[in-house]
Write a structure and sequence with these properties.
This protein has about 750 residues and is mainly beta. Helices cover about 5% and strands about 55% of the residues. It has a 22-stranded antiparallel β-barrel. Strands 7-12-13-10-11 form a five-stranded mixed beta sheet, with no helix packed on it. The chain has a three-stranded mixed beta sheet with strand order 1-3-2, with no helix packed on it.
């Protein structure tokens, strides 16, 4: 397993006796083939590579002593299924023995070339348990398993966390919406994940697994596409991937560069402009992997992405399904920079991973705050609300992992996060709005954590773990003399346990029960009374979740797979980012509630290239104990939690003389929800279908695709709002992008 981890590959076994096979180990630099040749020499076993990332260990055939060796016609035998490793568990546990709910989006290089420009929308389309607001790319909030606090963005910590490899992407920011080029898979661990990942993982985590540099050979890939949107402007995307060995088997560089533009489709009747909401994304990702010896690996990675939206993507139903009236443009920018360093070292049976990352994240928003009165179209009456956010996030984690022989595994470590967010808000004439507030908030989060899984009796294992966290928050207004009782510091200790019991009754099956906890530290917000700042403190919110599940067919290549899981979450002192009827943001504890969820998945893959998958969920939420000010709500369902959702997808692949042809389609349903918990913002959302269809030809080097999205051309109101200053009118709606077509081409060399 150490050899596989250092080589970045998976091992599949077809003989239980291999668990007891002794090995003398290796020291030095080897290719993967050289390493396994030496490890298996004289053992009676052989190895084979069915693909570049998987090695099969097989029993070597014994030559007959009674018959002369004759040429034989060999009939190919399909390789046995290989185990799916869940890297987000921090122990590289396999899906077959992981006692919790998890979803995957696996991506071949052709998939990332075809779908990479979709970013987070691709994950949302494939996993019904995920939901998101639809304010626009780079400004959305993603929710997992119905743990949704509000539709509005603010300074509150996210309910989920996101990772690129081992580097944390966000702490208190919206989804950066990194495009998914050159990504191997995306893992979604449903939460809470407080034990392994700490604060801000009430709903779970999204773990993006990029492809790693390969020091054995040089490769280059390029892809591009043209987008056509009904009732909108055209767009396009272009991306390139370069893998370059700098020193064979020791040093390699991997580069990804991309640019994407989505044409607008919303018209503004007041300003007499068409298709105003164009989105543009440009980015680059660079990874350098150095393997100085067989037991050391060093990865240096950098990410840069700039996302710009020319205007908001909402409409008003009094003007049209794809039109509105606004006095000024409402642009948005999200600029993201990340640098990370990861060091891995094998210490015999113990593996060390140490990762440090630093993020600079700039988010600039502008809304039309013009009062809806006569004469508002005059230049001197136009008002603007501007919000500039600058986030600097340092994250570090060092952990050790090991095993109890064949009886289980363990992980322990320490982590530290320092998140500094400066938010400056302006309100006033659109030409030069005046300063409203300028606040700098800081969060220091340090923790010790550990988790262990141990076999009790054959087929029965127990998992126990815990995390002890210390959080220190500070708030500081800029350029304002403070009053005497201003106390901008808050410290908290939190302990987060987890426990699970799992039973593996047969091959590729697991039945489990699990208890997990998660929390967000109580927010510290600087508010102004008569122009003077003071520190407003809010209770931390805390989630306790109990789940039961059954999963089968958890290996790659399994014909039939699926599972069912039920969960109930008790959510205390829910913190939410809200807006007032004046359109300005604020934080509140809205009360305590409960979220119940049952989800199922069933998939079948035949030998003739046909694949079909069905997945879905039912959810019930309730604000059982509302806080003062929220107890008048008649409908106490929590916002942004659809009552149901499902997805049906199918794919057929045919082999051709020069390659292959595939046809795929999907139909997704998003159930009913609402925007907020109380009037006038408790507006209905959801209840819509999203259908897609795609055709792809794959040759030896070249691939051509034709994809159609929003096939039914739905105009439903998605989970979003448009402008907080006119939201109370109840006329806003945020439709999905109209029916769109993409013609794409990609090549690999």
């Amino acid at each position: 397993m150490d050899c596989a981890e250092q080589a970045g590959i998976s091992i599949a076994l077809n003989d239980p006796a291999l668990d007891e096979l002794p090995s003398s180990g290796l020291r030095g630099r080897f290719t993967a083939r050289q390493a396994f040749s030496r490890l298996l020499q004289g053992s009676g076993y052989r190895f084979a590579f069915p693909d570049a990332r998987t090695v099969l260990i097989l029993k070597a055939p014994r030559p007959s002593r009674n018959r002369p060796r004759l040429p034989a016609r060999v009939t190919p035998v399909p390789p046995p299924p290989s185990e799916i490793v869940v890297t987000a568990t921090k122990q590289d546990r396999t899906l077959a023995n992981y006692p919790s709910s998890i979803s995957f989006v696996s991506m071949e290089p052709s998939d990332s070339a075809r779908y990479g420009a979709q970013g987070s929308a691709l994950i949302l389309q494939h996993i019904p348990a995920l939901s998101s607001t639809n304010l626009g790319p780079g400004r959305n909030k993603i929710f997992i398993r119905g743990i949704a606090d509000s539709s509005f963005n603010g300074s509150n910590q996210s309910t989920i966390s996101q990772y690129l490899g081992d580097a944390r992407l966000i702490y208190s920011a919206p989804d950066p919406d990194l495009l998914l080029y050159d990504v191997a898979k995306v893992e979604v661990l449903e939460g809470p994940q407080g034990t392994l990942y700490g604060a801000g993982t009430l709903g779970g985590i999204i773990h993006i697994v990029p492809r790693i540099p390969d020091a054995s050979s040089a490769r280059f890939g390029i892809s591009g596409g043209v987008h056509l949107t009904q009732n909108g402007k055209p767009g396009g995307d272009l991306a390139g991937v370069l893998n370059l060995p700098l020193e064979r088997d020791r040093l390699a560089l991997r580069l990804v560069a991309y640019s994407s533009q989505e044409g607008g489709y919303i018209d503004d009747a007041q300003r007499r402009q068409r298709d105003v909401n164009r989105n543009t994304v440009t980015g680059i990702r660079a990874s350098l992997r150095w393997t100085p010896s067989a037991d050391w690996t060093v990865d240096l990675s950098m990410v840069g992405q700039d996302l710009a939206s020319r205007d908001g993507q909402y409409a008003t139903n009094d003007v049209g399904s794809l039109a509105r009236r606004s006095a000024i443009a409402q642009p948005f920018d999200n600029d993201y920079r990340l640098a990370s360093l990861t060091v891995r070292h094998s210490l015999g049976g113990i593996n060390l991973v140490s990762v440090s990352s630093y993020t600079i994240h700039s988010i600039d928003t502008r809304f039309d705050a013009t009062p809806p009165v006569t004469g508002a179209s005059l230049p001197d009456a136009r008002q603007a609300y501007v919000e500039d956010i600058e986030i600097k996030l340092f994250s570090h984690e060092t952990r050790l992992t090991g095993s109890f022989g064949t009886q289980g595994s363990w992980v322990s470590g320490l982590s530290a996060i320092d998140n500094i967010e400066q938010t400056t808000r302006y309100l006033g004439p659109s030409s030069e709005p005046g300063l409203l507030s300028d606040v700098r908030n800081g969060t220091l989060d340090a923790a010790l954590f550990g988790e262990a899984t141990l076999g009790l009796v054959p087929d029965l294992t127990v998992t126990l773990g815990g995390r002890l966290s210390y959080v220190r928050e500070t708030g500081e207004p800029a350029g304002v003399q403070v009053i005497e009782n201003y106390e901008p510091i808050r410290s908290q200790f939190r302990a987060l346990p987890t426990a699970a019991l799992s039973w593996i009754p047969g091959t590729d099956q697991i039945v489990y029960v699990r208890y997990q906890e998660g929390y967000r530290p109580g927010a510290l917000e600087i508010v102004y009374d008569a122009g003077q700042p003071r520190a407003a403190r809010f209770e931390h919110d805390h989630v306790r979740t109990f789940e039961m599940g059954w999963r089968f067919g958890a290996s790659e290549g399994t014909g039939l797979s699926g599972g069912i899981v039920g969960s109930v979450a008790w959510w205390d002192d829910i913190q939410a980012d809200l807006i007032g009827e004046d359109g300005l943001p604020y934080i509140a504890n809205i009360g305590s509630g409960r979220v119940q969820n049952i989800a199922a998945r069933l998939a079948y893959a035949s030998d003739n290239g046909f694949v079909i998958e069905a997945s879905g969920f039912f959810a019930r939420s309730n604000l059982a104990h509302p806080a003062a000010g929220f107890d008048a709500a008649t409908d106490r369902d929590l916002p942004n939690i659809a009552d149901e959702g499902w997805r049906l997808a199918a794919k057929q692949r045919w082999s051709l003389a020069g390659g292959s042809l595939s046809l795929d389609g999907a139909l997704r349903y998003v159930g009913r929800s609402k925007l907020a918990i109380r009037p006038p913002f408790d507006l209905p959302q959801g209840r819509y279908y999203d259908a897609s269809l795609g055709l792809r030809f794959q040759g030896a080097l070249l691939g051509i695709t034709l994809d159609v999205s929003n096939l039914l051309n739905s105009r439903a109101n998605t989970f979003a709002f448009g402008n907080p200053f006119t939201l109370a009118s109840g006329t806003q709606q945020t439709p999905p992008r109209p029916r769109s077509l993409r013609l794409g081409i990609d090549a690999n060399f």
